[in-house]
Amino acid sequence: MTPATSPYNFPPYLLNPFTPMAFLPPDDAYRNTIMGYVIVGGLSVFVWDFLIHIPTDYRLVVKHNVKFPTVIYYLSRWSTLFYAVSTVVFQTAPIGNCAASAKIPCSAYHVAVSSTALLFFLRVRAIFEKDRTITIVFFVLWLAVLGGSVTAIPSLSGVHIGKTKYCTFSSIGTYRSAANITLAIFDTCVFIAITWRILRDQFTYEVGDQTKSNFFGRGLPAFSRALLQDGQKYYMVAMIANLLVLIMEFAPGIPLIYRTIFLATGVVLTNIMACRVFRHTKMGCKCKDSQAMSALVFNTNNIASVRIRNHINTVGVHSTLSDVGDISSRNVEGALSGYPTSEKLLAYQRR
């Protein structure tokens, strides 16, 4: 007795030929299913972050001058969203033409990574505005990220899952790790440069607990502390993500699907943190122990100031009065003249 044949020309041993996972070995089917869950979860996180910051993004356009850094911010934001969406669609929808379709998320990855890195190059350039050598070095590092991320386009392709129109990624190049290496180097250099500049401006030359306090930002003014801690948070997330990607890339026997999982989540997390730092610098940072100082530093509109006046009243008693008046952001900059890094970030805010 011969086995019955399928009218769809599927192999007769497939229990459910209408699911793409049936065409894969059990291990590969399991990995592809896990990847689908992870990238959909990453997209959900990014969409949530995107939606809750729509009011802030709106104020960036309405209440601030839209200049080059703001344009790069929006390019980074939207390209990362497009990358996350296109990756989910490629991995979960029956789109067909897998080889060509794989180039869409790869191209979006190139734009998202390079534009996010450009945000931090602009940040470094603002802090080291008068140091042409540092600016050139970091521009070269950013060009390395730009060139490294573009290798994702030719190094990855897509293949059909069995005879279905569902797709999965397939590696066709050994140089795909260039993007991860250059990005990890760039992130590390950005963090070291910003941390060194802040500590150089505020360092007390004391040892022991005071030095430790300064390194973690507790001994710094509110603006510099917020800047340093934001950089540390970004560095931690970006470096952990890129380190995991590099480990997965060079560890023997790791399937490509797991490498893609860490790559996709790393791009999303890095962009969330980079855009968070940009918004804090542009719109204002709320430090839990020094909100007044943060508002003083970041607010570009007229703000209230308190002026203390000592005088002798009519009965000869010394008294202290306080007046509340309006001052402009120009007065704020003057009040911060003792903090070089703060002044440079105020200039960056106006760009």
Automatic annotation (TrEMBL):
**A Pfam family of this chain:** DUF6533
Do the record's keywords include Repeat? Answer: no
Q: Which residues cross the membrane?
A: 34-51, 71-90, 102-122, 134-157, 177-199, 234-251, 257-278
Q: Which residues form the DUF6533 domain?
A: 37-81
**Swiss-Prot/TrEMBL keywords:** Membrane, Transmembrane, Transmembrane helix
Q: What is this protein called?
A: DUF6533 domain-containing protein
Species annotation: Collybia nuda
